[in-house]
UniProtKB/TrEMBL annotation:
Top-level taxonomy: Bacteria, Bacillati, Actinomycetota, Actinomycetes, Streptosporangiales
Record InterPro entries: NAD(P)-bd_dom_sf, Sc_DH/Rdtase_CS, SDR_fam
Name used for this protein in its record: SDR family oxidoreductase
UniProt KW Ubl conjugation keyword: no
UniProt similarity note: Belongs to the short-chain dehydrogenases/reductases (SDR) family.
One Pfam family cited in the UniProt record for this chain: adh_short
Amino acid sequence: MPDATSRSLKTLRTLDGRTAIVTGASGAFGGATVQVLRHLGARVVGIDRKTDTVGDTVLACDITDDDQVRAVIPEAIERLGGRLDRLIHYAGVGPAVDIGAAPDSHVHEALEVNLLGAWRVTAAAMPALLRQRGRVILTASLLAGLPLPFAGAYTVSKRALTAYADTLRAEYGTHVGVTTVYPGYVDTPIHDSSRAAGVCLDGLVPAERVRDTVMTAVRAAAVARPRRDLASTDFGTAVLRFTRRWPGVTDRLAAAQIADLAHSGHFGDAEIARGLHERHGATVAAAPATT
């Protein structure tokens, strides 16, 4: 456990005796969160569709599959002694797509994992959460309110996830707490697909650390009354407030940034960016031929 993280944990209430399920538990956020929760005394079971790291603490589960979710979530709760206090969602994908094109398999996957997967798992866990007056922590993104090019599937799914969180809070908030966490740009494998397509978001917004998101989610799990919406950093908090208060200004800023990116050649000759360059009248030099 890093020293800085250990010092941060001193301000949190202990989670001794609490139980938690963490989705995306083999990923950067999920794996670290499992470790921190255990450090605080919680009993934790992770779920992840990856099978290379499964074992006693991470159960294999594809959250886009109804049958798997219905089977695995009760098993996870049973391993936790039949009770569930916290459900923390991290599982997500971030494909690069052209928002003007018809939804393809990548778009469907983003909606299935980022939105419906969280919905599906929460529904399966709801009886146990109700019994414990538990808490659901959903990881959205600042992109839910700040669109960036070629992240449309991710942006749409995360904005829909925030609507799901708000509706869940309205209907179940008397018995189950709901907090939404809004990370900014964090360099994790979720960006591999955009890098492969030549439209990575590196450098477009200030980078955050994995630790920022993890500690925000852990605080939401540990404190008595967390806020309904939590950004991972002070800058993220400012962005979240700005985009909600001035959506029209946000639209204009996003459009201006996209135009600048098109004319600066940020996306090179990436095929997915061809239409964007044409719409902005941008001339992009072709990449040199390779031998």
